[in-house]
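Hi R.,

Here's the input for the NAP complex you asked about:
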Amino acid sequence: MTTRIILAGPRGRMGSEAIKMIQATKEFSLIACLDREATAANESKINEIAGENIPLYEQTDVCFQETEADVFIDLTVPDAGYIHTKEALSHGIAAVVGTSGFSDKQLEELSQLATKQQTGCIIAPNFALGAVLMMHFSKMAAKYFPDVEIIEKHHDQKLDAPSGTAKKTVEVIKENRAKKMQGHPHEYESEKGARGANMDGIHLHSMRLPGLVAHQEVVFGSNAELLTIKHDSFHRESFMQGLKLAVEKVLDTDGLVYGLEHVMEL
Ligand code: NAP
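And here is the predicted structure with NAP in place:
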């Protein structure tokens, strides 16, 4: 069976990788793209990446009415992504969302809509399978190693720090880590920020440099041993295996699933 896909954000860095992934997957078919500027120039850019003519739509409702899709993928920005996803679910089309930054209220609304429509929706802030495994392994290690610090490194155009993945790592570690005051009880910073951010007693250090993409090390310390769990994304291609998995799983999903770990059967 072929999975018919509509993609929003096809000219973006993630979107163009997604086109290549869809075109390389014989069970997937890209039937349309949603673009905020459906100009002839943009259409030809997308057709060049896809290697064939893909209908381009500007109006979300028209796109969903005129096409017959199984899955909608959003790789845009939070406000537009929320509207697109709401519209897809309203049309009974399963949604896979990589766009990050939805508010809790938006997530709750999408969850209610997906449940009401009995339609699958997978929202994953990180599609890199290795990053999801890094968090999972960190959670396992935290049971035995309560002393932990996180170093995350990203390209210098990233606005927020610490990264969402670093914050999520702290959340999952907390599920298994005994509460502990780390470091010397009287430690102090002679230069402000030297010890990084502190989330629930876990220190997070953020590095921003050109040349980096998305990298994280979770370092656990104990008596005479150190355990480092490290993940590197070198290119946006690293997110495509997880995106493909989400598209495959979403048609068997009922309601909203937040996070790829829930479909990875860990
Ligand atoms: P990008 O290169 O900036 O691409 C964003 C795309 O969204 C562009 O095509 C842009 O079109 C389009 N867009 C912007 N505003 C829009 C609007 N109001 N309506 C419709 N389309 C709009 O960004 P990216 O790196 O591809 O990332 C895309 C999204 O994925 C972001 O939310 C990012 O945080 C997220 N992301 C997720 C993962 C993951 O694993 N889940 C990994 C990396 C990134 P214009 O060119 O016209 O502006």
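One thing worth noting: Helices lie at 13-24, 40-50, 60-66, 78-90, 104-117, 129-142, 164-176, 240-250.

Cheers,
M.
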